[in-house]
Specification:
homodimer, alpha+beta, Nucleoside Triphosphate Pyrophosphohydrolase, 27% strand, DNA-binding
DNA sequence: CCAAAAGTGTTGCCTTTACACCCATGT
DNA sequence: ACATGGGTGTAAAGGCAACACTTTTGG
Protein backbone atom coordinates (compact mmCIF):
# COMPACT_ATOMS: atom_id res chain seq x y z
CA UNK A 1 0.00 0.00 0.00
CA UNK A 2 1.49 3.32 -1.07
CA UNK A 3 1.92 6.37 1.14
CA UNK A 4 -1.02 8.10 -0.48
CA UNK A 5 -3.35 5.16 0.15
CA UNK A 6 -2.21 4.93 3.74
CA UNK A 7 -2.78 8.61 4.34
CA UNK A 8 -6.18 8.49 2.69
CA UNK A 9 -7.24 5.47 4.70
CA UNK A 10 -6.31 7.15 7.96
CA UNK A 11 -8.03 10.36 6.91
CA UNK A 12 -11.23 8.53 6.05
CA UNK A 13 -11.28 6.50 9.23
CA UNK A 14 -10.00 8.98 11.76
CA UNK A 15 -10.14 12.45 10.24
CA UNK A 16 -12.97 13.38 12.56
CA UNK A 17 -10.57 13.23 15.50
CA UNK A 18 -9.05 16.44 14.22
CA UNK A 19 -11.93 17.93 12.29
CA UNK A 20 -15.53 18.78 13.07
CA UNK A 21 -17.87 16.36 11.33
CA UNK A 22 -20.59 17.59 8.97
CA UNK A 23 -18.90 20.94 8.39
CA UNK A 24 -16.62 21.99 5.57
CA UNK A 25 -15.48 25.22 4.00
CA UNK A 26 -15.04 26.05 0.33
CA UNK A 27 -13.10 28.98 -1.07
CA UNK A 28 -13.73 30.69 -4.37
CA UNK A 29 -10.41 32.37 -5.05
CA UNK A 30 -10.53 35.23 -7.55
CA UNK A 31 -7.57 36.57 -9.46
CA UNK A 32 -7.25 39.03 -12.32
CA UNK A 33 -4.95 38.46 -15.27
CA UNK A 34 -4.92 39.30 -18.97
CA UNK A 35 -7.95 41.49 -18.43
CA UNK A 36 -9.90 38.48 -17.23
CA UNK A 37 -11.34 37.48 -13.91
CA UNK A 38 -10.05 34.04 -12.93
CA UNK A 39 -10.96 31.39 -10.39
CA UNK A 40 -8.55 28.86 -8.91
CA UNK A 41 -9.73 25.25 -9.24
CA UNK A 42 -8.44 21.83 -8.21
CA UNK A 43 -8.54 18.56 -10.13
CA UNK A 44 -9.07 15.46 -8.01
CA UNK A 45 -6.64 12.61 -8.36
CA UNK A 46 -9.00 9.72 -8.78
CA UNK A 47 -11.96 11.14 -10.60
CA UNK A 48 -10.41 13.80 -12.72
CA UNK A 49 -13.26 16.12 -11.86
CA UNK A 50 -12.74 19.71 -10.83
CA UNK A 51 -13.70 21.47 -7.63
CA UNK A 52 -13.25 24.62 -5.65
CA UNK A 53 -10.48 24.41 -3.02
CA UNK A 54 -11.92 23.47 0.34
CA UNK A 55 -11.21 21.85 3.62
CA UNK A 56 -12.42 21.04 7.07
CA UNK A 57 -12.55 22.88 10.34
CA UNK A 58 -10.17 21.81 13.07
CA UNK A 59 -11.82 21.24 16.39
CA UNK A 60 -10.29 24.33 18.00
CA UNK A 61 -10.10 26.54 14.96
CA UNK A 62 -12.36 29.38 13.89
CA UNK A 63 -14.02 29.26 10.48
CA UNK A 64 -11.98 32.18 9.20
CA UNK A 65 -8.81 30.46 10.34
CA UNK A 66 -9.79 27.32 8.44
CA UNK A 67 -10.38 29.34 5.32
CA UNK A 68 -7.05 31.13 5.72
CA UNK A 69 -5.29 27.82 6.19
CA UNK A 70 -6.80 26.46 2.97
CA UNK A 71 -5.94 29.65 1.10
CA UNK A 72 -2.37 29.60 2.27
CA UNK A 73 -1.95 25.96 1.31
CA UNK A 74 -3.29 26.48 -2.20
CA UNK A 75 -1.76 29.85 -3.03
CA UNK A 76 1.26 30.21 -0.79
CA UNK A 77 -0.09 33.55 0.43
CA UNK A 78 -1.06 34.64 3.88
CA UNK A 79 -3.03 37.77 4.80
CA UNK A 80 -5.50 37.14 2.03
CA UNK A 81 -8.61 39.28 1.78
CA UNK A 82 -11.58 36.97 2.29
CA UNK A 83 -15.26 37.13 3.08
CA UNK A 84 -17.76 34.55 4.16
CA UNK A 85 -20.73 34.77 1.85
CA UNK A 86 -23.14 31.88 2.25
CA UNK A 87 -23.72 28.49 3.82
CA UNK A 88 -24.78 25.68 1.55
CA UNK A 89 -26.81 23.21 3.52
CA UNK A 90 -28.86 21.12 1.16
CA UNK A 91 -29.23 17.67 2.75
CA UNK A 92 -28.46 16.04 -0.60
CA UNK A 93 -25.05 17.55 -1.01
CA UNK A 94 -22.67 14.73 -0.12
CA UNK A 95 -18.95 14.95 -0.15
CA UNK A 96 -16.98 12.13 -1.59
CA UNK A 97 -19.69 9.51 -1.72
CA UNK A 98 -18.50 8.35 -5.10
CA UNK A 99 -14.91 9.31 -4.83
CA UNK A 100 -13.89 7.28 -1.84
CA UNK A 101 -15.63 4.00 -2.48
CA UNK A 102 -12.55 2.62 -4.13
CA UNK A 103 -10.63 2.58 -0.90
CA UNK A 104 -12.95 0.04 0.59
CA UNK A 105 -13.82 1.84 3.78
CA UNK A 106 -17.52 1.44 3.70
CA UNK A 107 -18.11 3.74 6.63
CA UNK A 108 -16.38 7.09 6.93
CA UNK A 109 -17.25 10.41 8.56
CA UNK A 110 -16.65 11.97 5.17
CA UNK A 111 -19.59 10.19 3.61
CA UNK A 112 -22.05 11.81 6.01
CA UNK A 113 -24.02 14.87 5.18
CA UNK A 114 -21.99 18.08 5.07
CA UNK A 115 -22.91 21.69 5.21
CA UNK A 116 -20.27 23.98 3.78
CA UNK A 117 -19.40 27.58 4.51
CA UNK A 118 -18.62 29.47 1.31
CA UNK A 119 -15.83 32.06 1.22
CA UNK A 120 -14.68 34.26 -1.58
CA UNK A 121 -11.14 35.58 -1.62
CA UNK A 122 -9.15 38.07 -3.64
CA UNK A 123 -5.51 37.53 -4.52
CA UNK A 124 -2.91 39.25 -6.60
CA UNK A 125 -2.56 36.89 -9.52
CA UNK A 126 1.18 37.25 -10.03
CA UNK A 127 1.99 36.44 -6.42
CA UNK A 128 0.21 33.11 -6.42
CA UNK A 129 1.92 29.79 -6.89
CA UNK A 130 -0.97 27.37 -7.33
CA UNK A 131 -0.38 24.17 -5.36
CA UNK A 132 -2.54 21.04 -5.50
CA UNK A 133 -3.41 19.40 -2.19
CA UNK A 134 -2.68 15.76 -1.47
CA UNK A 135 -6.03 14.69 -2.91
CA UNK A 136 -5.61 16.52 -6.20
CA UNK A 137 -3.06 16.52 -8.97
CA UNK A 138 -3.70 19.90 -10.54
CA UNK A 139 -4.39 23.39 -9.28
CA UNK A 140 -5.08 25.88 -11.99
CA UNK A 141 -6.66 29.20 -12.88
CA UNK A 142 -9.84 29.16 -14.94
CA UNK A 143 -11.44 32.02 -16.72
CA UNK A 144 -14.62 32.87 -14.84
CA UNK A 145 -16.56 32.71 -18.09
CA UNK A 146 -15.36 29.18 -18.82
CA UNK A 147 -15.68 27.24 -15.61
CA UNK A 148 -15.96 23.49 -16.32
CA UNK A 149 -18.53 21.24 -14.73
CA UNK A 150 -17.63 20.92 -11.05
CA UNK A 151 -18.42 18.33 -8.37
CA UNK A 152 -21.56 18.49 -6.22
CA UNK A 153 -22.96 22.01 -6.06
CA UNK A 154 -19.64 23.75 -6.69
CA UNK A 155 -20.83 25.42 -9.88
CA UNK A 156 -23.58 27.04 -7.89
CA UNK A 157 -21.07 28.02 -5.19
CA UNK A 158 -18.94 29.80 -7.79
CA UNK A 159 -21.99 31.56 -9.21
CA UNK A 160 -23.10 32.74 -5.80
CA UNK A 161 -19.58 33.87 -4.95
CA UNK A 162 -19.48 35.95 -8.10
CA UNK A 163 -22.81 37.53 -7.20
CA UNK A 164 -21.50 38.29 -3.73
CA UNK A 165 -18.35 39.81 -5.23
CA UNK A 166 -20.47 42.01 -7.49
CA UNK A 167 -22.46 43.27 -4.55
CA UNK A 168 -19.29 43.97 -2.61
CA UNK A 169 -17.73 45.92 -5.42
CA UNK A 170 -19.24 49.14 -4.11
CA UNK A 171 -17.88 49.04 -0.59
CA UNK A 172 -15.03 46.59 -0.51
CA UNK A 173 -11.48 47.27 -1.67
CA UNK A 174 -11.74 44.88 -4.58
CA UNK A 175 -9.33 46.66 -6.89
CA UNK A 176 -6.84 47.06 -4.09
CA UNK A 177 -6.69 43.31 -3.50
CA UNK A 178 -6.85 42.02 -7.06
CA UNK A 179 -4.41 44.29 -8.85
CA UNK A 180 -0.64 44.48 -8.55
CA UNK A 181 0.96 47.40 -6.74
CA UNK A 182 0.93 49.57 -9.82
CA UNK A 183 -1.59 49.45 -12.61
CA UNK A 184 -3.10 51.62 -15.30
CA UNK A 185 -6.51 53.21 -15.38
CA UNK A 186 -7.65 51.05 -18.31
CA UNK A 187 -6.64 47.96 -16.34
CA UNK A 188 -8.68 49.07 -13.36
CA UNK A 189 -11.57 49.72 -15.69
CA UNK A 190 -11.37 46.23 -17.24
CA UNK A 191 -11.48 44.84 -13.72
CA UNK A 192 -14.74 46.60 -13.01
CA UNK A 193 -16.16 45.74 -16.39
CA UNK A 194 -15.31 42.07 -16.06
CA UNK A 195 -16.81 41.76 -12.59
CA UNK A 196 -19.94 43.70 -13.45
CA UNK A 197 -20.28 42.23 -16.90
CA UNK A 198 -20.89 45.59 -18.58
CA UNK A 199 -18.82 48.16 -20.41
CA UNK A 200 -18.26 51.58 -18.93
CA UNK A 201 -17.42 54.95 -20.38
CA UNK A 202 -13.66 55.49 -20.24
CA UNK A 203 -13.80 59.18 -19.37
CA UNK A 204 -16.52 58.99 -16.77
CA UNK A 205 -14.85 56.01 -15.16
CA UNK A 206 -11.61 57.88 -14.73
CA UNK A 207 -13.33 60.96 -13.38
CA UNK A 208 -15.29 58.99 -10.81
CA UNK A 209 -12.33 56.91 -9.77
CA UNK A 210 -10.05 59.92 -9.31
CA UNK A 211 -12.79 61.76 -7.43
CA UNK A 212 -12.66 59.05 -4.75
CA UNK A 213 -9.22 60.42 -3.96
CA UNK A 214 -7.61 57.08 -3.17
CA UNK A 215 -5.26 56.82 -6.13
CA UNK A 216 -1.85 58.27 -6.66
CA UNK A 217 -0.53 58.84 -10.14
CA UNK A 218 3.08 57.81 -10.54
CA UNK A 219 5.58 59.79 -12.59
CA UNK A 220 6.25 56.88 -14.97
CA UNK A 221 4.01 55.53 -17.65
CA UNK A 222 3.51 51.94 -18.62
CA UNK A 223 5.74 51.34 -21.63
CA UNK A 224 6.04 48.39 -23.94
CA UNK A 225 2.46 48.16 -25.16
CA UNK A 226 1.34 49.45 -28.50
CA UNK A 227 -0.28 52.89 -28.74
CA UNK A 228 -0.03 55.76 -26.32
CA UNK A 229 1.55 54.80 -23.01
CA UNK A 230 -0.97 55.00 -20.15
CA UNK A 231 -0.07 56.42 -16.74
CA UNK A 232 0.67 54.14 -13.84
CA UNK A 233 -1.28 54.47 -10.60
CA UNK A 234 -1.12 52.96 -7.17
CA UNK A 235 -3.48 53.06 -4.24
CA UNK A 236 -2.48 55.64 -1.64
CA UNK A 237 -2.75 53.53 1.47
CA UNK A 238 -3.40 56.36 3.92
CA UNK A 239 -6.06 58.02 1.82
CA UNK A 240 -7.48 54.62 1.07
CA UNK A 241 -7.95 53.61 4.66
CA UNK A 242 -9.39 56.97 5.59
CA UNK A 243 -11.88 56.69 2.76
CA UNK A 244 -12.81 53.11 3.63
CA UNK A 245 -13.57 54.11 7.21
CA UNK A 246 -15.82 56.89 6.06
CA UNK A 247 -17.65 54.38 3.92
CA UNK A 248 -16.27 54.58 0.44
CA UNK A 249 -18.61 54.09 -2.43
CA UNK A 250 -17.10 52.83 -5.66
CA UNK A 251 -20.60 52.94 -7.07
CA UNK A 252 -20.69 51.91 -10.68
CA UNK A 253 -23.96 50.95 -12.29
CA UNK B 1 -38.86 12.93 37.69
CA UNK B 2 -41.23 15.31 35.92
CA UNK B 3 -42.08 15.23 32.25
CA UNK B 4 -39.86 18.21 31.53
CA UNK B 5 -36.84 16.63 33.21
CA UNK B 6 -37.43 13.39 31.34
CA UNK B 7 -37.68 15.16 28.00
CA UNK B 8 -34.61 17.23 28.73
CA UNK B 9 -32.61 14.18 29.76
CA UNK B 10 -33.49 12.35 26.58
CA UNK B 11 -32.72 15.43 24.48
CA UNK B 12 -29.32 15.86 26.07
CA UNK B 13 -28.38 12.20 25.76
CA UNK B 14 -29.88 11.30 22.41
CA UNK B 15 -30.76 14.51 20.59
CA UNK B 16 -27.99 13.88 18.11
CA UNK B 17 -29.88 10.91 16.75
CA UNK B 18 -32.29 13.37 15.18
CA UNK B 19 -30.09 16.43 14.83
CA UNK B 20 -26.74 17.18 13.26
CA UNK B 21 -24.11 17.73 15.95
CA UNK B 22 -22.07 20.95 16.08
CA UNK B 23 -24.58 22.89 13.99
CA UNK B 24 -27.37 25.17 15.12
CA UNK B 25 -29.43 27.95 13.67
CA UNK B 26 -30.52 31.20 15.28
CA UNK B 27 -33.27 33.49 14.03
CA UNK B 28 -33.49 37.21 14.62
CA UNK B 29 -37.19 37.88 14.08
CA UNK B 30 -38.07 41.49 13.33
CA UNK B 31 -41.49 43.03 13.77
CA UNK B 32 -42.76 46.59 13.61
CA UNK B 33 -45.23 48.02 16.10
CA UNK B 34 -45.95 51.39 17.69
CA UNK B 35 -43.48 52.97 15.29
CA UNK B 36 -40.73 50.80 16.72
CA UNK B 37 -38.65 47.99 15.31
CA UNK B 38 -38.97 44.93 17.58
CA UNK B 39 -37.12 41.66 18.02
CA UNK B 40 -38.65 38.47 19.40
CA UNK B 41 -36.69 36.96 22.31
CA UNK B 42 -36.99 33.89 24.55
CA UNK B 43 -36.36 33.57 28.26
CA UNK B 44 -34.85 30.28 29.35
CA UNK B 45 -36.56 28.35 32.10
CA UNK B 46 -33.63 27.61 34.35
CA UNK B 47 -31.36 30.57 34.00
CA UNK B 48 -33.77 33.38 33.36
CA UNK B 49 -31.44 34.73 30.69
CA UNK B 50 -32.67 35.82 27.28
CA UNK B 51 -31.75 34.54 23.87
CA UNK B 52 -32.68 34.66 20.23
CA UNK B 53 -34.95 31.78 19.13
CA UNK B 54 -32.93 28.97 17.67
CA UNK B 55 -32.80 25.28 17.06
CA UNK B 56 -31.01 22.42 15.46
CA UNK B 57 -30.91 20.91 12.02
CA UNK B 58 -32.63 17.57 11.51
CA UNK B 59 -30.50 15.02 9.76
CA UNK B 60 -32.53 15.13 6.54
CA UNK B 61 -33.59 18.76 6.65
CA UNK B 62 -32.22 21.75 4.78
CA UNK B 63 -30.99 24.76 6.73
CA UNK B 64 -33.80 26.95 5.44
CA UNK B 65 -36.31 24.30 6.47
CA UNK B 66 -34.86 24.25 9.99
CA UNK B 67 -35.18 27.98 10.21
CA UNK B 68 -38.74 27.88 8.95
CA UNK B 69 -39.60 25.20 11.49
CA UNK B 70 -38.24 27.33 14.32
CA UNK B 71 -40.04 30.40 13.04
CA UNK B 72 -43.33 28.57 12.79
CA UNK B 73 -42.99 27.17 16.28
CA UNK B 74 -42.27 30.56 17.84
CA UNK B 75 -44.65 32.75 15.85
CA UNK B 76 -47.37 30.44 14.56
CA UNK B 77 -46.70 31.70 11.03
CA UNK B 78 -45.56 29.83 7.99
CA UNK B 79 -44.30 31.37 4.75
CA UNK B 80 -42.13 33.80 6.61
CA UNK B 81 -39.67 35.99 4.73
CA UNK B 82 -36.20 34.99 5.88
CA UNK B 83 -32.59 35.38 4.86
CA UNK B 84 -29.44 33.67 5.95
CA UNK B 85 -26.94 36.36 6.82
CA UNK B 86 -23.87 34.98 8.58
CA UNK B 87 -22.31 31.97 10.23
CA UNK B 88 -20.90 32.41 13.69
CA UNK B 89 -18.12 29.93 14.17
CA UNK B 90 -15.91 31.10 17.00
CA UNK B 91 -14.55 27.96 18.72
CA UNK B 92 -15.31 29.49 22.11
CA UNK B 93 -19.02 29.86 21.57
CA UNK B 94 -20.60 27.02 23.54
CA UNK B 95 -24.23 26.25 23.77
CA UNK B 96 -25.71 25.32 27.09
CA UNK B 97 -22.51 24.57 28.96
CA UNK B 98 -23.77 26.29 32.06
CA UNK B 99 -27.44 25.73 31.58
CA UNK B 100 -27.54 21.99 31.49
CA UNK B 101 -25.16 21.07 34.28
CA UNK B 102 -28.00 20.82 36.72
CA UNK B 103 -29.41 17.79 35.03
CA UNK B 104 -26.40 15.72 35.87
CA UNK B 105 -25.57 14.48 32.42
CA UNK B 106 -21.91 15.17 32.38
CA UNK B 107 -21.49 14.35 28.70
CA UNK B 108 -23.90 15.59 26.06
CA UNK B 109 -23.64 16.40 22.36
CA UNK B 110 -25.02 19.80 23.25
CA UNK B 111 -21.95 20.73 25.24
CA UNK B 112 -19.66 20.36 22.23
CA UNK B 113 -18.58 23.21 20.07
CA UNK B 114 -21.33 24.64 17.86
CA UNK B 115 -21.30 26.80 14.81
CA UNK B 116 -24.56 28.59 14.21
CA UNK B 117 -26.16 29.85 11.03
CA UNK B 118 -27.77 33.24 11.57
CA UNK B 119 -31.08 34.09 9.91
CA UNK B 120 -33.08 37.27 10.02
CA UNK B 121 -36.79 37.17 9.40
CA UNK B 122 -39.57 39.69 8.89
CA UNK B 123 -43.06 39.17 10.27
CA UNK B 124 -46.24 41.14 10.46
CA UNK B 125 -46.40 42.01 14.13
CA UNK B 126 -50.16 41.70 14.58
CA UNK B 127 -50.26 38.20 13.12
CA UNK B 128 -47.76 36.76 15.55
CA UNK B 129 -48.68 34.81 18.66
CA UNK B 130 -45.38 34.50 20.48
CA UNK B 131 -44.94 31.00 21.91
CA UNK B 132 -42.12 29.87 24.19
CA UNK B 133 -40.48 26.54 23.39
CA UNK B 134 -40.21 23.75 25.93
CA UNK B 135 -36.94 25.09 27.24
CA UNK B 136 -38.20 28.62 27.82
CA UNK B 137 -40.99 30.16 29.80
CA UNK B 138 -41.38 33.48 28.00
CA UNK B 139 -41.40 34.63 24.40
CA UNK B 140 -41.67 38.35 24.01
CA UNK B 141 -41.06 41.33 21.75
CA UNK B 142 -38.25 43.70 22.68
CA UNK B 143 -37.62 47.12 21.30
CA UNK B 144 -34.52 46.91 19.13
CA UNK B 145 -33.03 49.86 20.99
CA UNK B 146 -33.43 48.14 24.36
CA UNK B 147 -32.25 44.58 23.90
CA UNK B 148 -31.18 43.08 27.25
CA UNK B 149 -27.98 41.16 27.78
CA UNK B 150 -28.29 37.88 25.91
CA UNK B 151 -26.56 34.50 26.24
CA UNK B 152 -23.30 33.68 24.45
CA UNK B 153 -22.77 35.87 21.42
CA UNK B 154 -26.45 36.54 20.81
CA UNK B 155 -26.11 40.29 21.29
CA UNK B 156 -23.60 40.32 18.49
CA UNK B 157 -25.91 38.14 16.38
CA UNK B 158 -28.71 40.68 16.79
CA UNK B 159 -26.38 43.54 15.92
CA UNK B 160 -25.15 41.80 12.80
CA UNK B 161 -28.70 40.91 11.78
CA UNK B 162 -29.69 44.53 12.08
CA UNK B 163 -26.75 45.55 9.92
CA UNK B 164 -27.77 42.94 7.35
CA UNK B 165 -31.34 44.20 7.44
CA UNK B 166 -30.12 47.75 6.82
CA UNK B 167 -28.11 46.66 3.83
CA UNK B 168 -31.09 44.73 2.47
CA UNK B 169 -33.42 47.67 2.82
CA UNK B 170 -32.56 48.83 -0.68
CA UNK B 171 -33.37 45.68 -2.56
CA UNK B 172 -35.51 43.48 -0.37
CA UNK B 173 -39.24 43.90 0.20
CA UNK B 174 -38.81 44.92 3.81
CA UNK B 175 -41.86 47.13 4.09
CA UNK B 176 -43.97 44.54 2.35
CA UNK B 177 -43.16 41.92 4.95
CA UNK B 178 -43.16 44.02 8.11
CA UNK B 179 -46.30 46.11 7.67
CA UNK B 180 -49.93 45.02 7.78
CA UNK B 181 -51.92 44.82 4.57
CA UNK B 182 -52.84 48.48 4.71
CA UNK B 183 -50.77 51.24 6.19
CA UNK B 184 -50.21 54.96 5.92
CA UNK B 185 -47.31 56.77 4.32
CA UNK B 186 -46.12 58.16 7.67
CA UNK B 187 -46.06 54.62 9.07
CA UNK B 188 -43.96 53.41 6.16
CA UNK B 189 -41.67 56.35 6.72
CA UNK B 190 -41.24 55.56 10.43
CA UNK B 191 -40.30 52.03 9.40
CA UNK B 192 -37.49 53.28 7.20
CA UNK B 193 -36.38 55.82 9.76
CA UNK B 194 -36.27 53.26 12.55
CA UNK B 195 -34.29 50.74 10.55
CA UNK B 196 -31.86 53.30 9.18
CA UNK B 197 -31.66 55.28 12.39
CA UNK B 198 -32.10 58.64 10.69
CA UNK B 199 -34.96 61.01 9.99
CA UNK B 200 -36.12 61.63 6.45
CA UNK B 201 -37.96 64.45 4.74
CA UNK B 202 -41.67 63.69 4.63
CA UNK B 203 -42.26 65.14 1.17
CA UNK B 204 -39.26 63.65 -0.54
CA UNK B 205 -39.94 60.29 1.05
CA UNK B 206 -43.46 60.19 -0.32
CA UNK B 207 -42.35 61.29 -3.76
CA UNK B 208 -39.64 58.66 -3.97
CA UNK B 209 -41.85 55.92 -2.61
CA UNK B 210 -44.69 56.65 -5.01
CA UNK B 211 -42.26 56.91 -7.90
CA UNK B 212 -41.37 53.25 -7.36
CA UNK B 213 -44.88 52.52 -8.53
CA UNK B 214 -45.52 49.60 -6.19
CA UNK B 215 -48.12 51.21 -3.93
CA UNK B 216 -51.82 51.57 -4.40
CA UNK B 217 -53.71 54.30 -2.61
CA UNK B 218 -56.99 53.10 -1.14
CA UNK B 219 -60.16 55.18 -1.20
CA UNK B 220 -60.44 55.25 2.62
CA UNK B 221 -58.32 57.17 5.03
CA UNK B 222 -57.11 56.07 8.41
CA UNK B 223 -59.52 57.55 10.90
CA UNK B 224 -59.45 57.63 14.67
CA UNK B 225 -56.15 59.40 15.20
CA UNK B 226 -55.85 63.03 16.05
CA UNK B 227 -55.11 65.55 13.29
CA UNK B 228 -55.65 65.20 9.59
CA UNK B 229 -56.49 61.66 8.53
CA UNK B 230 -53.74 60.12 6.38
CA UNK B 231 -54.47 58.01 3.31
CA UNK B 232 -54.23 54.26 3.48
CA UNK B 233 -51.99 52.40 1.05
CA UNK B 234 -51.31 48.81 0.20
CA UNK B 235 -48.68 47.16 -1.91
CA UNK B 236 -49.88 46.31 -5.40
CA UNK B 237 -48.68 42.74 -5.62
CA UNK B 238 -48.37 42.54 -9.40
CA UNK B 239 -46.52 45.80 -9.77
CA UNK B 240 -44.44 44.87 -6.77
CA UNK B 241 -43.23 41.58 -8.19
CA UNK B 242 -42.54 43.10 -11.56
CA UNK B 243 -40.48 45.81 -9.93
CA UNK B 244 -38.60 43.34 -7.73
CA UNK B 245 -37.61 41.29 -10.76
CA UNK B 246 -36.29 44.33 -12.54
CA UNK B 247 -34.21 45.07 -9.46
CA UNK B 248 -36.07 47.57 -7.39
CA UNK B 249 -34.09 50.16 -5.53
CA UNK B 250 -35.69 51.63 -2.43
CA UNK B 251 -32.54 53.68 -2.02
CA UNK B 252 -32.68 55.98 0.95
CA UNK B 253 -29.54 57.54 2.34
C1' DC C 1 -59.55 78.73 17.06
C1' DC C 2 -55.27 76.67 17.66
C1' DA C 3 -51.73 73.11 17.58
C1' DA C 4 -50.12 69.26 15.31
C1' DA C 5 -49.91 66.33 11.52
C1' DA C 6 -50.75 65.40 6.50
C1' DG C 7 -51.13 66.57 1.46
C1' DT C 8 -48.90 68.82 -2.43
C1' DG C 9 -45.44 71.51 -5.84
C1' DT C 10 -41.27 74.28 -7.06
C1' DT C 11 -36.56 75.54 -7.25
C1' DG C 12 -31.70 75.06 -7.32
C1' DC C 13 -27.84 72.13 -6.99
C1' DC C 14 -25.10 68.45 -7.82
C1' DT C 15 -24.23 64.12 -9.77
C1' DT C 16 -24.29 61.42 -13.85
C1' DT C 17 -24.24 60.79 -18.73
C1' DA C 18 -23.19 61.63 -23.27
C1' DC C 19 -20.09 63.08 -26.36
C1' DA C 20 -15.55 65.24 -29.38
C1' DC C 21 -11.02 66.52 -29.91
C1' DC C 22 -6.16 65.97 -29.40
C1' DC C 23 -2.00 63.07 -28.42
C1' DA C 24 1.21 59.18 -28.51
C1' DT C 25 2.95 54.83 -30.34
C1' DG C 26 3.83 50.59 -33.23
C1' DT C 27 3.17 48.86 -37.76
C1' DA D 1 0.39 57.90 -42.46
C1' DC D 2 -2.78 55.57 -40.05
C1' DA D 3 -5.12 52.75 -36.91
C1' DT D 4 -5.68 52.13 -32.21
C1' DG D 5 -5.90 53.28 -27.71
C1' DG D 6 -5.17 56.97 -24.07
C1' DG D 7 -5.74 61.73 -21.90
C1' DT D 8 -8.89 65.60 -21.01
C1' DG D 9 -13.15 69.00 -20.87
C1' DT D 10 -17.88 70.56 -21.60
C1' DA D 11 -22.80 70.72 -22.03
C1' DA D 12 -27.38 68.62 -21.21
C1' DA D 13 -30.26 65.78 -18.37
C1' DG D 14 -31.92 63.73 -14.49
C1' DG D 15 -32.18 62.88 -9.68
C1' DC D 16 -32.12 64.62 -5.04
C1' DA D 17 -32.43 67.78 -1.33
C1' DA D 18 -34.26 71.96 0.57
C1' DC D 19 -38.14 74.33 1.39
C1' DA D 20 -43.58 76.87 2.16
C1' DC D 21 -48.19 76.91 2.01
C1' DT D 22 -52.70 74.82 2.51
C1' DT D 23 -55.89 71.38 4.64
C1' DT D 24 -57.85 68.60 8.18
C1' DT D 25 -58.84 67.10 12.79
C1' DG D 26 -59.29 66.79 17.96
C1' DG D 27 -59.25 69.39 21.95
Amino acid sequence: MGSYEKKLREFLLQGDRNFLPHISIDCVIFGFHDNQLKVLLLKWKDQGSWSVPGGFVKRKESLDASAKRVLKERTGLKDIFLRQFQVFGDPHRERGKKSFKIIGTSKSWIMDRFITVGYWALVEFSKVTPRPDWLSDECQWWDVQQIPSLIYDHNSIVTKALEALRLSLNDQPVGYNLLPQTFTMPELQRLYETILGVSLDRRNFQKKMLALDVLERLPERKTGGAHKAPFLYKFDKKKYERAMQKGLSFGFQ
